[in-house]
Design brief:
It comes from Pomacea canaliculata (Golden apple snail). Helices cover 50% and strands 6% of the residues. With 399 residues, it is of the alpha/beta class. It has a domain of 161 residues. About 6% of the residues have low confidence.
């Protein structure tokens, strides 16, 4: 048992079942998609993070706890056990990418050795939820990618929507298709982008999980899931001989610390983006309202916690002041279960709000991930017609 009473034997059985499903699904696929060894993965797929002390090999996938695990590897690399992972800035960790020990620069034989000899793991999540999370994090919420991605998507898949309350859309030339200061993209536009069949490249944050980590080529020892993130994290680190408490802190505070850490990182990132916005594309009050809405969509703040200041007051807020307002609302947002239901509602609302024909294309896009990792992907099961929830977030009015 873990200190919180989690049954370790049950966790071990869960991981065995996940590995068995992977093996069965890969074997049932085309022969060229399955290899008994890891030669293909040596030259293809994602960059693995390496910890030589604990002989760990991690395949990071965007929007599946990737930032969290990068922090863990920083602590392991710097031998900073005793310093909580939640005290590290996610922005700072991302900027350290060039200092990480990765498989990218290793010679072929050494890569092969790692894949054969180290404990290999990845984390996955419900593919529909990952897609929605990518949209919220990289497009809806101001980020370093928002401007470029939004312009790219609108240019190829734009719906020619009128600017909305939180939009800041400024089309420079509607006849030539050139765009200026496009900071808003609808979820429908986004889904057309990721499912496109016209050869437009899709950003790595949104590509399928199987394509990044090649689970049919790599014999992963552990397959963690976002739905059981804390338990799987404890299990994998414990199996590797890491003192879990010294890295993550007490189990009782894990979820709260993780939530607040993400809120801090998002806030700092948003203010960095606004400050560095030399083109003046981002209207600060609008961006802070959208960030507040992001915290509600993610289930950190109750939908009943309205943005607490006027637009004029928002223009003068510092990152610390905004974060303090958000944290105060977090502490008074009711039960976690209620906030998680709110998050599920946001996901349902987003997918029900796109055309059914496009939803079918999304189903095809996520199908391999669903089969490999054990998720339901049939849209008639996930999003039955005539069962759309009452609009709560009204995304079209937020962009």
């Amino acid at each position: 048992m873990f200190p919180d009473g989690t049954d370790v034997r049950r966790l071990a059985e869960d991981h065995i079942k996940r590995k068995e499903l992977l093996h069965k699904t890969c074997k049932a696929g085309p022969e060229e998609n399955f290899f008994e060894d890891a030669r293909e993965a040596v030259t293809e797929g994602n960059q693995f993070l390496i910890d030589d002390v604990h002989r760990l090999l991690y395949c990071p996938i965007e929007k599946v706890g990737c930032s969290f695990w990068k922090r863990v590897f920083v602590l392991l690399k710097d031998q900073q056990q005793g310093k909580s992972v939640f005290n590290l800035s996610g922005v700072a960790v991302h900027r350290r990418w060039g200092l990480f020990n990765t498989s990218a620069s290793k010679p072929f034989l050494l890569k092969y050795f790692y894949l054969q000899s180290y404990t290999k793991f990845l984390f996955v999540r419900d593919p529909y939820e990952r897609l929605f999370s990518g949209y919220i994090d990289k497009i809806f919420t101001p980020s370093y990618q928002t401007q470029g991605l939004s312009e790219h998507i609108r240019q190829h898949f734009g719906e020619n929507l009128q600017p909305a309350a939180m939009g800041d859309r400024k089309l420079a030339n509607q006849t030539t298709g050139s765009f200026s200061c496009v900071t808003s993209v609808s979820f429908s536009e986004f889904c057309r982008y990721v499912t496109n069949d016209i050869g437009v490249a899709v950003n790595a944050h949104f590509t399928p999980m199987y394509a990044k980590c090649l689970p049919c080529h790599v014999g992963y020892d552990f397959v963690g899931k976002m739905e059981t993130f804390r338990d799987d994290t404890n299990f994998i680190l414990t199996a590797a001989g890491v003192n879990v408490t010294s890295v993550l802190g007490p189990d009782s505070s894990f979820q709260t610390e993780n939530d607040l850490s993400i809120m801090r990182d998002v806030t700092n990132r948003v203010f960095d983006v606004i400050i560095s916005d030399t083109r003046k594309c981002f209207h600060k009050a609008n961006m802070l309202r959208r960030t507040w809405a992001t915290f509600q969509i993610r289930g950190y703040l109750s939908i009943h916690k309205k943005f607490p200041v006027s637009d004029e007051e928002a223009e003068n807020l510092t990152s610390e002041q905004f974060l303090n307002l958000a944290m105060k609302a977090y502490e008074n947002s009711g039960s976690r279960e209620e906030c998680m239901r709110q998050r599920k509602t946001a996901i349902l609302e987003a997918f029900y709000n796109i055309p059914r024909s496009l939803l079918k294309k999304v189903e095809f896009f996520v199908q391999k991930d669903c089969l490999l990792f054990g998720y339901e992907c049939n849209v008639d099961q996930r999003f039955p017609e005539n069962q759309a929830p009452q609009p709560v977030f009204k995304f079209d009015t937020m962009i």
